[in-house]
Amino acid sequence: MASERIDGLAAVLSAVRAETGITQPRLVERVGLGRSVVAQRVAELEKAGLIEGAGFGPSSGGRAPRRLRLRAGRGVILGVDIGPAEVVVGIADLTGTVLATRQQRVDVARGPEAVLTLAETLAAELCRTRRRPVWAAGVGVPGPVEFRTGLPVVPPIMPGWDRYPIRDRFRARFGAPVWVDNDVNLMALGELHAGSGAAGHMLYVRAGVGIGAAIVMDGRLYRGANGSAGDIGHVAIPEGDNVICRCGNIGCLEAVAGGVAISDPVRAALIGGTLATLISFYNPNLLVLGGSLARGGTPVLGAVREVIHERALPLATRDLRIELSSVPEEIAGVTGAVALALDEVFAPVNLETWLAAGSPDQVNW
């Protein structure tokens, strides 16, 4: 467990990340620590080269307060989005701003050796353009992931990937800590960091070749006991009849309503029926539609909204907002992968591991 000092450093750092240009008095309000403690933590973070001054804020009668910001250029973050048919890799600064991306089509069914070799090549190309140490990496895959270990577990569309050590492989290649998660979870994180952070309870649904959901509770991603929360693609639906799914079961939502034509309002309505159940069960205040659902635009949004309001409980839909994703589909996964890596590398338990060394790349993970 991290010490009280580390918890304070992480809290100040988190506030500076969330509100660039924040003043020290505002920091005291946000983190709930005394002024002298906040001043000490700010001084320590400045000495460590993690934050810096960014001018002065308005004065309320005395000395103008200093503004603070993250030192974004100290290192870079890699985001890797492995999809069913392509790999997208991005490189970002420490604020999470994606600076450049590379992408290439590849079938995930070719297996981990071919796909990860390609991802490593694209990442290395990006690293050569920035010449900064890699501080952390986030990787998303289109299948269930045991988050604690970073291992894919019997992913239906990823033959040969079961329990493959993605995290260990990337860590050895780039000398930095790595976190692996389901791709839809990462898209939800990207959505939160792009402006939906006010949604305390959010359900993010991505549809395409596969169908999945991510759950946000009190502003934080909820993964469940082992990491499979939100895997709705393989729930049975009445319209499934005897349709065989690639997971081996019959009548799965993904087998009936998945695919490249999912922007069709009829298929979207099938998904809406399942979502109505989830809305009644979870009662989020925001439902975000991503992937092919977002590409379908207003007709799909209308079809999903209509079914949900017909079938879900009135109280569950009273304050519900249903929106299309605000993050472009081609970078949604990468944006979320970067957000995951930053959240984890600056978390108290990990900050304590590398702070004395100066940066995460100086520690043997």
Question: What's a concise summary of this model?
Answer:
This protein is of the alpha/beta class and 365 residues long. It has helices at 4-18, 24-31, 35-47, 112-130, 166-174, 183-196, 253-257, 265-282, 292-295, 297-311, 314-317, 329-345, 348-354; strands at 22-23, 51-56, 66-70, 76-82, 86-92, 98-105, 134-141, 145-146, 151-152, 178-182, 201-207, 211-217, 220-222, 286-291, 321-324.
Query: Regarding CATH, which class of the largest domain?
Result: Alpha Beta
The number of helical segments is: 13
Provide the gyration radius in Å: 22 Å
Q: What is the name of the CATH topology of the largest domain? A: Nucleotidyltransferase, domain 5
Strand % is 15-25%
CATH homologous superfamily classification of the largest domain: ATPase, nucleotide binding domain
* Low-pLDDT residue intervals, each spanning 5 or more residues: none
Largest sheet: 5 strands, mixed
The CATH architecture of the largest domain can be named as 2-Layer Sandwich
Number of distinct beta strands: 15
Structural class: alpha/beta
What is the end-to-end distance?
17 Å
Could you describe the 3D structure shown?
With 365 residues, the protein is an alpha/beta fold. The protein folds into 3 domains: 4-70, Arc Repressor Mutant, subunit A (Orthogonal Bundle); 73-186 and 330-354, Nucleotidyltransferase, domain 5, CATH 3.30.420; 196-327, 2-Layer Sandwich (Nucleotidyltransferase, domain 5). Helices cover 41% and strands 22% of the residues. The chain has 13 helices and 15 strands. The chain has helices at 4-18, 24-31, 35-47, 112-130, 166-174, 183-196, 253-257, 265-282, 292-295, 297-311, 314-317, 329-345, 348-354, and strands at 22-23, 51-56, 66-70, 76-82, 86-92, 98-105, 134-141, 145-146, 151-152, 178-182, 201-207, 211-217, 220-222, 286-291, 321-324. Strands 6-5-4-7-10 form a 5-stranded mixed β-sheet, sandwiched between helices. Helix 1 (4-18) packs across helix 3 (35-47), helix 6 crosses helix 12 (329-345) and helix 8 (265-282) packs across helix 10. The mean pLDDT is 93.
